[in-house]
Specification:
It is a single chain. This protein is α/β, with parallel strands linked by helices. The chain has a domain at about 5-175 and about 225-250: NAD(P)-binding Rossmann-like Domain (Rossmann fold). About 40% of the residues lie in helices and about 15% in strands. The strands form four sheets. Strands 3-2-1-4-5-6-11 form a seven-stranded parallel β-sheet, with helices on both faces. Strands 12-9-14 form a three-stranded mixed β-sheet. It binds uridine-5'-diphosphate. Uridine-5'-diphosphate (UDP) binds next to helix 6 and strand 8.
Length: about 325
């Protein structure tokens, strides 16, 4: 069934590719983004962009009504672990307070379905790996705590009225579609940084610590292709349409260390990637690897691009076509 979907943060990395794929799947889409991090050029042609904040209740209500929206996908957030440890107040304001205001606007406009862009960061330091949804949620950084706080608001709200929600706990998004990709300023994520070093636009890379309890001492993450991640949102919209709610992990079920990523990028690009060993970054768990079997079972979702080389190759191709990223 076709839906009319408001995508907050639809000019950002995962948002832009989800918008592209939602529109491709026949849904009507409108984007709300304040362009603090997103890019106008990242919004698919023909999709309306409203420039504004999710905390602006009157604006959100107007957009919901004017576009006859029935479902919201909520990406707009601050999303950097390191920054969250330095600016906790800003993170609670953007991710929790503004999120709560979005829910108020939805309630007032009678929109009762939401897909939330959550994070593996809600789990903290895992006790068991791979991590399933029943693993205790004890965040070790501010970012993860804000995502968990918003999930709790969703849970209480859904218990008190007819709100339905799907919360998607992403592991590490990577890659690009043909038209849209990753352009953060400044860039802090491992794969784009590694590729900038390969391209010669960044002199070198610092690996954040080799004294973790992992085979090579560097942190292990579960990288998931952004196209697969986006498709899970479309599956979630369909699940909400069937009256279902739930919380799902999205990952590959496989972990790669920082050094594995550098090796894979070297083989994909054929370039030298000089790196030096640096200090640990605050708030980094040693090993985050997902079990996504619940999403497979209940959303009917499976990753179509599970190979790290595929994701790095897609990101490298996108960078080649968009040197310097999106035009401003
Ligand atoms: N990382 C690194 N050097 C960098 C950027 C990231 O060693 O310049 C490490 C980081 O400590 C983490 C992994 O790469 O273990 C992935 O980090 P990223 O910021 O991409 O994603 P996160 O896991 O924080 O969501």
């Amino acid at each position: 069934m076709s839906s009319s979907v408001l995508v907050t943060g639809g000019a950002g990395y995962i948002g832009s590719i989800t918008v592209e794929r939602l529109a491709g799947a026949g849904h009507r889409v409108v984007v709300l983004d304040d362009l603090s991090k997103g890019h106008r050029a990242a919004v698919a042609p023909g999709v309306p962009l409203v420039v504004g904040g999710v905390g602006d209740v009157e604006l959100v209500k107007r957009v919901l009504r004017e576009h006859d929206v029935d479902s919201v996908i909520h990406f707009a957030a601050m999303s950097l672990v390191g920054e969250s440890m330095e600016r906790p107040g800003d993170y609670y304001e953007a991710n929790v307070v503004h999120g709560a205001r979005l829910l108020m606007a939805m309630a007032e406009a009678g929109v009762r379905k939401i897909v939330f862009s959550s994070s593996a960061g809600v789990y903290g330091e895992p006790e068991t790996v791979p991590i399933s949804e029943s693993h205790p949620a004890r965040p070790v950084n501010v970012y993860g705590d804000t995502k968990l706080a918003f999930e709790r608001i969703l849970e209480w709200q859904a218990a008190s009225d007819d709100l339905r929600y799907v919360s998607l706990r992403y592991f590490n998004a990577a890659g690009a579609s043909e038209k849209f990709g990753e352009d953060h300023r400044p860039e802090t994520h491992l794969i784009p940084i590694v590729l900038e070093v390969a391209a010669g636009t960044r002199p070198e890379l610092a690996v954040f610590g080799d004294d973790y309890e992992t085979p090579d001492g560097t942190c292990i993450r579960d990288y998931i292709d952004v196209r697969d991640l986006s498709d899970a949102h479309i599956a979630a919209i369909d699940a909400l349409g069937r009256g279902e709610s739930g919380i799902y992990n999205l990952g590959n079920g496989e972990g790669w260390s920082v050094l594995n990523v550098i090796d894979a990028a070297r083989s994909v690009t054929g370039k030298e990637i000089p790196w030096k060993m640096g200090r640990r970054r605050a708030g980094d768990p040693a090993r985050l690897v997902a079990s996504s079997s619940l999403a497979e079972k209940e959303l009917g979702w499976t990753p179509e691009h599970p190979e790290l080389e595929d994701m790095i190759g897609a990101a490298w191709d996108w960078m080649g076509r968009h040197p310097g990223g999106y035009p401003e």
